[in-house]
Specification:
The complex is a heterodimer.
Chain A (H helix, E strand, L loop, with lengths): L2 H20 L3 H25 L6 H21 L5 H26 L14 H28 L14 H24 L5 H19 L7 H23 L2 H24 L4 H6 L14 E2 L2 E2 L1 E2 L2 H9 L3 E6 L1 H5 L3 H13 L3 E6 L9 H8 L7 E3 H4 L8 E5 L8 H4 L18 E6 L19 E5 L2 H14 L1
Parallel strand pairs in A: 3-9, 4-5, 4-7, 5-6, 7-8, 8-9
Antiparallel strand pairs in A: 1-2
Chain B lengths: L1 H21 L7 H11 L3 H10 L6 H30 L19
Helix pairs in contact in B: 2-4, 3-4
The chains are: A alpha/beta, B mainly alpha.
């Protein structure tokens, strides 16, 4: 490899690391992302220098142009609420690239036999390539299913074949591995059959689909994060096979970061990664219970005017936003309400649960979009002590993250999950469309608590009404 | 083999760097971080370029596969960085805050 190309690769991955360090603080994050993007440009230019004698310029340039044309519009136009599925989609095409690279290599090297021309043992390279093929295909198809679930093309609740699920997935995994072994053995002799290579891609793809299908909507962020990490690892493996240092470093860093993120998210929900992947938890929240009562329990409903009066005489108000706020696009309305409250000298804070929204930090992005100050957004551990000193807590479209059963009901499926202690505040107003349960599909005793009142309706409209009433006071 | 072993060493060290750099990221930036790392693994477009670019007289199947691979990889890179930038732009300190310190927003 040219020294220049190698040097540029080193510059590129140094920029990735620098850029990622920048992402650790809000003030340097924008610059960090730009540095990483510039690093990517350096890496691509270096690669183009490396392959400058190719006869395929036309295809390469055309493909780059098409990629840019397809990539920019969705990234620029996507609503902030739809970011998780877009990340899933971008992650998927990355995984797809890895699988296709392995396939292309397989063809180019006549079933990997062509690699023998290179010096030294070739088996490690073949193994890396096969690993990339399996994980790349799994990540591609898994991400596509995750995308379709979040986009609600597929239902959000778990789809599974019951008890057969795990044995079936194990067989698919064994099948893909077996096909990979056959290809690997073939590569040492006369060249492996293309059929077996395609079998790897297909089996791994079905495995990806079957793994994600049984996972419910609530666990989807963890799954996307896991697939993100896997794509990173497969990129590193493909880098090993191609002896490409930039791919090795960048892929592995993503693999490491994705693993940390996955762990953090799973911890925030008090779930293990294994049990999430095993699937079956978390419905689509469609098990709606009748309007205001379930059995002998009654939730008290309130009006916008009453809610406004309560708020007007509070000293401190905490807003607990959830996915419902995002769906209703109510972040701007909430900001308007907060402005009115602040003009009355009331302190407004936002309590952000780590998994509020669809991904960690998703809610912060949505609120930042509405110009909510970064300092007013409090993380769970920082604000949980404050609820007892708070007059009114407004829960907007959040459910499971406020469920007191997670703290005091050992029989609850979410027992042990860290939640916001909203019940400790003097009064709670819950804005909700109906009494339907959250993504975990479980009832929330908060709604029936003595100090809780419910304000039913679309979150955006309700907040706007409350704001009007506040102004009129 | 030497270069393979050297690459493995780089791989392991990169893993540790990834852990070290990223474990410091605050919760609030996790979504942009996920999106940003997602863009960085778009580095795979390099692999697609190398496979096609170093092939001698690539046949049609390889051309098609590589074309799709380069398109996918480019979408991953460009889309990933653009959407991350959009998210992060929302965290930018607003102009009115420039003369206050970073820790307090001066808004009580």
């Amino acid at each position: 490899m040219d020294i220049l190309v190698y040097a540029l690769y080193i510059v590129a991955f140094a920029m990735f690391i620098l850029g990622l360090s920048g992402l650790t603080a809000p003030r340097s994050a924008v610059r960090g992302n730009k540095i990483a993007a510039a690093g990517m440009a350096v890496a691509v230019v270096a690669t183009l220098i490396h392959i400058r004698e190719t006869s395929s310029w036309l295809i390469i340039v055309a493909a780059l142009v098409v990629g840019v044309i397809l990539g920019i519009p969705p990234a620029r136009k996507v609503k902030m609420t739809a970011v998780p599925q877009l990340v899933a989609l971008f992650n998927g095409v990355g995984g797809g690239t890895v699988a296709l690279i392995a396939w292309g290599e397989f063809i180019e090297s006549d079933g990997f036999t062509g690699l023998h021309a290179a010096s030294g043992p070739v088996l490690p390279l073949v193994i890396a390539s096969l690993f990339a093929a399996i994980i790349g295909s799994l990540s591609f198809w898994g991400s596509i299913v995750a995308f379709m679930k979040l986009q609600q093309i597929l239902p959000g609740h778990p789809l599974s074949v019951g008890r057969l699920q795990q044995p079936l997935n194990a067989m698919l995994f064994l099948g893909a591995t077996l096909a990979a072994v056959i290809v690997g053995i073939g590569s040492t002799t006369t060249g492996a059959d293309l059929v077996w290579f395609v079998a790897i891609l297909i089996l791994a793809g079905i495995l990806g689909v079957m793994t994600v299908l049984p996972i419910g909507g609530a666990d989807m962020p963890v799954v996307i994060s896991l697939l993100n990490a896997l794509t990173g690892l497969s990129a590193a493996a493909a880098g090993l096979a191609l002896n490409n240092i930039a791919m090795i470093v960048a892929g592995m860093i993503v693999g490491a970061s994705g693993t940390i993120l996955t762990n953090l998210m799973a911890k925030a929900m008090n779930r293990s990664i294994l049990s999430i992947v095993a699937g079956g938890f978390g419905g689509g929240g469609s098990k709606g219970v009748s309007a205001t009562s379930t059995g002998d329990q009654h939730a008290k409903s309130t009006s916008a005017a009453d809610a406004a009066i309560k708020l007007a005489y509070a000293n401190q108000v905490i807003v607990v936003p959830g996915y419902g706020l995002a769906v209703a696009q109510a972040q701007h309305a909430v900001k308007d309400m907060a402005k009115v409250l602040e003009s009355r000298g009331i302190e407004v804070k936002y309590a952000i649960h780590p998994v509020a929204g669809r991904m960690p930090g998703h809610m912060n992005v949505l609120l930042a979009e509405a110009d909510v100050s970064y300092d007013a957004m409090k993380e769970m551990d920082d604000i949980n002590g404050e609820f007892s000193r708070t007059d009114v807590t407004i829960v907007i479209g959040a459910n499971d993250v406020t469920n007191p059963a997670a703290r005091n009901d050992p029989n609850s499926p979410i027992f042990g999950m860290p939640v916001l202690n909203v019940t400790e505040s003097r009064s709670v107003i819950v804005l909700k469309r109906s009494m339907s349960s959250g993504f975990a599909g479980i009832e929330n005793p908060l709604f029936f608590a003595a100090n809780t009142t419910m304000l039913f309706g679309d979150a955006k409209k309700s907040v706007a009404q409350v704001t009007e009433e506040l102004k009129a006071l | 083999m030497d270069s393979f072993l050297a690459n493995i060493a780089i791989l392991v060290l990169s893993g540790f760097i990834g852990f070290a750099v990223i474990s410091k990221v605050p919760n609030t930036l996790h979504t942009p971080l996920m999106s940003g790392t997602n863009a960085i693994h778009g580095i795979v477009v390099l692999g697609a370029l190398v496979v096609l670019g170093t092939a001698h007289n690539p046949g049609l199947p390889l051309q098609i596969i590589s074309f799709v691979a380069i398109v996918f990889g480019t979408v991953n890179v460009i889309g990933g960085f653009v959407v991350t930038d959009r998210m992060l732009a929302m965290f930018k300190t607003r102009p009115v805050d420039t003369n206050t310190s970073t820790a307090t927003d001066g808004k009580n």
